[in-house]
Amino acid sequence: MYHMYMPNKTISVPEDVVPIIDGLGIPFSTWIANQLRHHAATHSALAFAQQLVADAELANAEPP
Predict the structure, then answer these.
(1) Who wins on pLDDT, 42 or 44?
(2) In 10 A of CB 5, how many CB atoms?
(3) How many angstroms separate the CA atoms of 51 and 17, rounded?
(4) Residue 36 backbone dihedrals phi, psi, to 5 degrees
(5) What is Dmax (Cα atoms) for the chain?
(6) What burial letters (b/e) apply to 11-30, b meaning 16+ CB within 10 Å?
(7) Which DSSP symbol is given to 29?
(8) Backbone angles phi, psi at 3, to 5 degrees
(9) Exposed, middle or buried by CB within 10 Å (0-12, 13-18, 19+), for 33?
(10) What tens digit of pLDDT does each residue of 11-36 get?
């Protein structure tokens, strides 16, 4: 687990986002850290060239 001290930071969010953050059921900072870890884990498994191809495919994908 990562234990380096990080000073608190303040961010501003639109009022309609506050209920979504409150509904996460965990502290927002924990949720963000989990998302970043997940992103790092899924993207670090790819080689650089594979990541470039995946990013290009996402950039050219049709919106749903």
Answers:
(1) 42
(2) 4
(3) 31
(4) -65, -40
(5) 42
(6) eeeeeeeeeeeeeeeeeeee
(7) H
(8) -120, 15
(9) middle
(10) 788 888 888 888 888 888 888 888 88
